[in-house]
Amino acid sequence: MSHSQSQWWKRLGAATLTAVLLVGCSRDPNVRKQKYFESGKRYFDKQQYREAAIQYQNALQVDPKYPQARYQLAQCYLKMAMWSQAYQELLRTVELQPENLKAQLDLGNLLVAARQFKEAQERAERVLQKEANNLEAHILLANAFAGLENPAGSLREMKYAIELDPKRSESYLNLAWLQLRAKQTGPAEESFKKAMQLDPHSVVAAITAGNFYQQQRRWPEAEQQFRRAIELEPQSLQPRAALAGLYLAQGQPAQVEQVLLETKRALRDNPEGYRMLGDFYFRLGEWEKALTEYASLYQEHPKDLQVKKNYVQVLILRARLDEATRLNDEILKQNPKDVAGLIYRGQILSRQGRSNDAIPALEVALKSEPDNAVAHYHLGIAFSQVGNLGRAESEWREAVRLRPNMVEAQRALAQVAQSKGDFDQLRERAEQLISTEPASPEGYILRATARLSRDRVGGEADLQKAIELAPQNPIGYSRLGSLRFAEKRFNEAEKLFEQALERDSNFSEALQGLVGVYIQQKQPAKAVARVNAQIAKAPDNSAYYLLLGMLLTSTKDLEKAEAVLEKAVELNKNNVDAFLLLGQVQLRRGSADKAIVSYQRSIQENPREVRTYVLLGALEESRGNWQKAQELYQKALKIEPEYPLGANNLAYLMLEHGGNTDVALTWAQVARRQMPDSPNAADTLAWAYYHKAAYGLAIGLLEDAVKKLPQNATFHYHLGLVYQKTNEKTRARVHLERALQIDPKYIHAAEIHKALAELSGD
User: Fold this and answer.
1) Does domain 472-539 have CATH number 2.40.50.180?
2) Among residues 330, 328, 354, which one has the least CA distance to residue 343?
């Protein structure tokens, strides 16, 4: 072999040996897990916590009992605010490595945050058994004692921690908050000052001191600290947010707006910073400003998904559903399981009157995030729109369980309680609203409603509080006016209603109250004049034209009433009450065809309003078009299956025209269940029992109906037939004859005469 060949074989052999060694190393689990661990550390040092977590998870797949990887994975979760996952990894770490004191302390701090103070105390004491002078353990123990309502022990431990390191600024901040908790305001302020003295460049110390002064309502000192924090770290979001919050607490929205404009300019590359102004407008309900701001942000930052989502939400709230749909479809095209996108889709469909389609979208969102309170709330809205009020209430209750301070869900439950007359539940919801938004009049107004059912004084105090909190809000004056009206203190009621209208010329409730005062005093002309005067101030208020139409109808000025109601529906095509009254006025004027057109217009504009279907059905039924009436009742019940008038009318129509008796009985039972005191529902159910030959069940219902409406010929006719079937001839004859006495031209007179003849022939 030549020299060159020899060298070639040597190189080949060396390369082969290296390859073998590399393959051997790659199969060594210790080497593999270490490589993953080191890769995770590199990502962690670059603050790429999600990527670091993946590498630590890879290491743990190789060796599930690798405590260092467990601990570092927990640190990633802590950085990403994934508290539950961090807690689980820390638990596994200390199981594998009980001597890892840092893990024990991290675990203890999570337990404090979760208000599991006793368990946190045990973790701190476990560390102190190993290291009696561990500063972090003494601080953890101090915080645990504070949660366990042991202020003396808490302050003792914190002061001992300070003795261990008297130059540590953060310890004085912790001491200050513990002193505040123990109601030691003066010493707490000294501790804040000491913290800032030890570290004059600490933004955390400045913000914390500012929060302290804000709690004490020492506004200038709080502002000074927040502005100092901004100077220390101009690119930091937290001090700017704190300053905006300070102005908001003082009720100075213009100053808040200015701070957030400055934040947007200073932090133009920080998404949380440039989004704050739009979020502020959203929080205040200034929808047009929010819409303009988000539209601008979307143009400037088209790749910011959160901006896009916020923009979609405001578009939905402003009823710009086509634009919202287009943008939201883009979100869901990118990620079909995007929970926010699915919730937006549910909202859009609900607002389009397609609640049956909204429900599946929201349920898909909840499969991904079962604890999403917003999804539960909107699912409740969708169920309420399809008439499933029980399921709606259940979803709202779940929403407030998950997020007790969710005002929208609390408000929905308050409305449910109010509709049921459940004043205990209403008061509970009102007090939750007061706790969540103590500066808002809404909770006090609702609690006043609950209290006034039993306690006039307490209710009045709540109304006065609502006025004090929001002197420019008309609702407090209007509700107090209603109270004075109920007390027959009409002059005071009139003044209060006028005060409400001075604050909001479109506040319909107050004008209704004012009209009520005049009607009670038998002054209908004055009521008409006052409504006309208010229409001059608010000419686009459809509700005012409806109110005027009601007054003109009551005074039998039907021609003017019709014209006014036409104006009401022209201004607001969703004013269903105006459509319904318009149809009734047209009927009274002898124009059934015009009434039908009005009802059909109402259905076209408001396809989910069941009352219109039932009224139009009754009109068609009266004209002999019973098939058309049946179709309309069925449409109403498809929208709201428990709607009692639709169920009652459909059941009776089916019984009268040879429909399925079993189906008719089911609808009659729905009507009776929903209207247990209605004689008409009792009669319909009894008539269904008659057709099922269940005469014993029918008798009690019909006797109850006759007792409540003794001049109703149909009730006597039905009861007479039932008595005939049970062979109670005398009673049968009495009721059949009574039906003819009430209405000699009764539609079933021939059948009654036939039945009487049969009774006489027996």
Assistant:
1) no
2) 328
